[in-house]
Structure formats: structure tokens, C-alpha cells
Amino acid sequence: MHMAARCLLWLLVGCLSAANSQDASWALVFPQNDAFGRPKHPSFESGLQPGPSVRYSSCAVQLPSASGTGGGRAFVVTHGYFFDHLTLQPVWLDDAWVFRLGDHNALSAAGHWSPLHLHGADDPTASSKHVPAARMSHSCVLHGTSLVFYGGSKDGEMRDNAYHSFCYGDVWELDLAAISDTEESIHQPTARWKQLWSHDPAAPGSAPVARELHSAVILPAQAHIQPNAPVMVVHGGVDRSDTWVFDLRKAQWHQLNVKKHHGPGHRFGHVAAVSGTAMFLHGGHDRFPIRTFDDLWRLDVATATWTLLGSTPFRMAYHASTAFGNDNLWLLYGGSRDHSCHDEGLLVDLTTLRAAPLPKPSAAGTLPIPRYRHSMAMSGDTVFVFGGESMSPYMYHNSVSALLMSNTAAWVASLAWSTLSPSSPGQDGAFDDQDGAFNDASDASGGLAVPVVGALLAGAVLALVHCRWYGACCLAAVLGLLASPTWACCQMVGFAAVQASRRIFIMFNDYN
After folding, report:
1. Each residue's pLDDT tens digit, 136-153
2. For residue 371, which of 397, 390, 349, 399 has the smallest C-alpha distance?
3. How far is CA 375 from the centre of its chain?
4. Which residues pair with 194 in a beta bridge?
């Protein structure tokens, strides 16, 4: 009897799984092409279908004219980076492409790429003065029919026999209104960029520090900021914890005066979305101390207040995301943690604060290779995943995978939803939004254990080799500066350890 009931249960689960797979299914809609793994793209006359080169840390947005219902499904991708293993040189990209899947109700037909403008010397009509400089780790957000582009970096460039690393702080706009989502020709008029803000650290006025791996969203018009003017909100980045607002109409910045020790704080490689008039932020990474986050935050721009909503079952950095369902549903996918890439996904309901893991497909080989620093965009009922880098196998990507949600409501209802775990800033990490002072109760013991032990050992070694007191102080100070304020808490411990060890050493010698 029990065996029959168990068989019936498995039969029902199988039927439900089959039904769910019809509601949401993965497919490869543009294959990996290693011929594109070069800075120069294949010519249109060569017989090869054109497309962007392999890359990671690019960005993508939906093509505004692509409705997905009666029209095509399309997205735009621009800039990025890959390392050329043949020449052993880094390659930063400044090209932009549009991918069209066409008017299909299934993913059986492959899509195609069209260039908006090509990379560097590949496009003789391009002018470097009218295109954002080649870079990676920037942000792109869709504002009406325009792509708004901000920040990024160019790390490790070789000039004058030396490596140079720097970030950008400029803001650009790419007008996509004239780009068709159903145009079958691969040739398109060159899309035009317009610079909205030129970053000049020496210029007077308020502006954010140039940054990379930050998050950015477009919020609707906020009366307390500027009537009838949407704004771009930017948070974080590498070694950054501040939150800034950019008025798209006046091209002006101002910083939100977030209360100290209340907010996501220092993090990078996180994702953000908008639902209603609020900004939501998830995950990311921090260097001091090294850790990856699973928390979900909400920003009320009107009051400049961050609220920690809870912990998710998705601890991840360098992932990608897209919102749908009137921006109430937020899909997070891929990323890295613990030095490995993942193909996990999480769907978050931003109204009920529930989360559900993304089911794995039953058909082998349809899920994208685990990756991080990829791009995502949603057009109509289809989520696109492009580019990125994977560790196993180690490779850069330029393939396009798509998740088709033919019956979104049924698919969402079938997921295993759970309420977010409550948490407090002391558990998930609250930081000073200005100077980054760490204020995490969970790391008060474990986080300080290693620095304290290190300081004690350093003090003992210095004492045994008769190192002078000022030398020990200098070493401890350098450690404090290099390893963030967490180490600063240990400097006095180190000083005391040095002095005590020296005294014990002297007493031991005198005794003998």
C-alpha cells in the first residue's frame, strides 16, 4: 500500500514538473563562437554571422521598442572586457550590439546580432570623442528610449612600461528610439552617444568619486528632488559605500545623507532594482573583511533611509538580475561565491518579501554554463543571459541563452515560495556610509580573532629579534591602514603584546 502511494506521489510530482517546464524553459538561442574571441569582428562579407566578441563585465538592457507581444524580443549590450590569451594582452571593448530573437512564441529559432557601432578601428566612422571610452564594470539602465551609461574601470593597462588602473565617473546616453526590434537586416545606422556628465575631480561642486562594480537604477520623478524629473540612483562600488542621485534633466549630482551605520555600506558586485518608488539592493562582495552577502535592502529616497528586509537563500556576488511583473518580481541569476561560479537563480517578490529558488531544467545541457559577471535583460516574456566568465570550464562567453516564460503567472505560482529570514544590521552587516567603519556584531569575535592572533604573534617575533618599539608601532600602523578599521582595533593589542613580550624576554635573560 505504501509503495503504491509512493508511486502515485512521484507520478504527480512528475506531472507537475512537466507542466512547470512548459511554463518556463531554457534554450540556447545563439551559440558560442570562438571566432569572435578576437578584438576584430568577422567582416559581414566573410560568410560568418556577425556578433560581439567574448566578454565579461559588460551591460545589457531591453531594446525599448521590443514588446515581445506582436513585436520582436531584443536587447542591447555594450562595452566589456576579455583577456586575449594569444597576445597575452587585456582587451577593453567599446562596441554596442543589438540581439533580436524575432516574433516567436517559442525558442526554436535562433536569433541574430546587428551592430550599433563597432569596436575601435573596426568602425572607421566611429569617433572616440563621441563614444564612451572602452571599459568594463560599468552600469547601464533604461530610461524611456535611452540607455544611460555610468562609471566603469580600465584596470591593468600597460602604458610607458607600467600598469595603470583607473575608474571612470562620466555619464552617457545612447538613444535607442530609432532602432527597430524587427529589422531583419544586420546593417543599422550607427547609434549616437551623448555625454551627459564629464567627470572632473578638480571641478567645483558635488559629484561622486569615479567607481566600478556599483549598482544603478532609474527612479520615477520624485517631487522632493526635482518635480517631474526621473533620477538615476547609484550605490557602492569597490571600496565605496555612498549613495548618489543624478538628475537626468539638469545633469546634476547630489549625495543622499544616509544616517551613519545604517545601510548596505561597502560592497561591490551587487545588483539593484526598482519597484514602485523604492530601490532594492541584493548581495555583493566586500574586501575588508572578505565576505559575500545574501541580504536584501530597500532604499526610500524621500527620507534617505535604508531598510534591511532580511536574508535570502542566495549568497552571491557578480550576479545579474532583471525585474518583471510590473517590477514586483525580481529574478537573480548566476554569480560567484567561495571562489566558484554558480548556475543558481532566485526569484524575489518585492511586494510580499518572499523568495523562491529557480528550478533546474529537466533536460540536460539547456541551462547556461555556470558563470559570473554576465549580463541579463528581459524582453517580453523572455529573459536573456549573455557573456560572462566561467571557471569550470575556464572560458569567456558570447553565447546567448534565453529563459522563456510562456505562462508567467502559472510558473510563478508553481514555485516553492518562502518568507525571507528576518535579520538585523548587526547580523548582516551595517556600515558607516561615509568612512566605512565596520559595525558587525557577528564578526566582533570571529572577525577579530585572526587579526588579534596575528598581532600577538607579530609582537612576540619582533620582541625576540630585539626589534625596537617604534618599529613595532610602525608595522602595526601599516597593518591597520592596509586591512581597514578592523585591524585598527588590534593595533593597541599589538603594541601591548610587543611591550609585554620584550619585558618577558629581558626578565628571562636576566634570570639566566
Report:
1. 999 999 999 999 999 999
2. 390
3. 9
4. 173
